[in-house]
Specification:
This protein is an all-alpha fold. It contains 9 helices and no strands. The protein has helices at 3-21, 26-33, 37-44, 52-62, 66-73, 82-90, 96-118, 125-128, 131-138.
Length: 139
C-alpha cells in the first residue's frame, strides 16, 4: 500500500472511531457535516482522501477540532507544548490571534526555562521583575 492510501485509511479509521465514540451514525454525520453519505463512507474505508475543507466540515459534525483531523491526515505536524498549549488551542472563547499570542508567550517562557536550566547563572526576565514578590506578599 502506498503512503497516500495509508494516510487515507488512517484518517478514515480515525473519523470512524470518533463517530462511534460520539454514537453518531454515518448518515447522521453526513447530515451534520454536509458531506454526502457515500463520500463519507469512502473516506472512512480509506478509498478517498478528503481535502482540508471536507475535514473541517467533518470536524464540525463530530464536534472536535479540525486541527486534530489535520494532524491525523498529515496536513499539519503534531502540535507541541503539552496540555497547556492544547487547552489554549481548544478554548472557543479566544480568537485565533489571542491563541497565537498566548502560545508565543508560553513557548518563550518554556525556552527561557530550558536555557536557564542548562545555565543556572541566567535569571528569568520574570524573576527580575517584582511580579513574584507581589504574588508572594499578597498570599
Amino acid at each position: 500500500m502506498d503512503k497516500v492510501a495509508g494516510l487515507g485509511r488512517d484518517i478514515g479509521d480515525y473519523i470512524r472511531q470518533q463517530r462511534n465514540t460520539a454514537k453518531i451514525s454515518l448518515r447522521q454525520l453526513s447530515k451534520l457535516a454536509g458531506v454526502s453519505n457515500p463520500y463519507l463512507s469512502q473516506i472512512e474505508r480509506g478509498l478517498r482522501k478528503p481535502s482540508a475543507e471536507i475535514l473541517q466540515q467533518i470536524a464540525k459534525g463530530l464536534r472536535i477540532s479540525a486541527e486534530a483531523l489535520y494532524v491525523q491526515a498529515g496536513i499539519l505536524d503534531l502540535p507541541t507544548g503539552g496540555p497547556v498549549a492544547d487547552a489554549i488551542r481548544a478554548d472557543a472563547e479566544l480568537s485565533e490571534r489571542q491563541k497565537q499570542v498566548l502560545l508565543d508567550v508560553y513557548e518563550s517562557f518554556r525556552k527561557e526555562n530550558a536555557a536557564r536550566s542548562s545555565d543556572p547563572t541566567l535569571k528569568s526576565t520574570v524573576e527580575k521583575s517584582d511580579v513574584d514578590s507581589k504574588t508572594t506578599a499578597e498570599e
